[in-house]
Amino acid sequence: MARDMSDKEILKMELEQLQKEVKNTREPVSKTAKEICEWVEAQSIEDPLIKGVPEDKNPFKEKGGCIIT
Description:
Elements: H1 7-23, H2 29-43, H3 48-51
Membrane topology: Lipid-anchor
Subunit structure: G proteins are composed of 3 units; alpha, beta and gamma.
Subcellular location: Cell membrane
């Protein structure tokens, strides 16, 4: 994408991105990390990668066995 753009267009795009980033409120890592950990632990109850998928609801389960004749 950047190959098709002039230097002026690239700088304009970067400036617009920086203006968006400046508007974001920043939070200390000590606060956000704790919140993220709490959220992950609360969601882990429903996570199929941790809990597993019951065989009757597994969409990737093979329908029939392999028969060699």
